[in-house]
Amino acid sequence: MADEIFKALADPTRRVILDELVERPGQTLVEICARLSMKHRIGSSRQAISQHLAVPEEAGLVRSRREGCYKFHDPDTAPLEHVVERWIRPRRKRADP
Fold first, then answer.
1. From CA 69, how far away is CA 47, in angstroms rounded?
2. Is 0.90 topped by the overall pTM?
3. More confident residue, 88 or 8
4. Domain ranges in the chain?
């Protein structure tokens, strides 16, 4: 699972998508594309953004839900706990007096 997380976070466009979802959860693909275009000057097609979005979704960092003909995307930071448990918490424990 960690490999998928790192793959999802490796690309700058995917990190911006995750930032946007953390800032404003529950966005549709159209909303994500509009925010990337207006706010970050990322002019990728909806298909390209959809492909980018699929990578963090496969890693469990994004959850999607369908309501009618709309698909909403929400961030899920729970998979990052694995990274914290593996590298950050052990270091903090050693540093604590």
1. 17
2. no
3. 8
4. 2-95
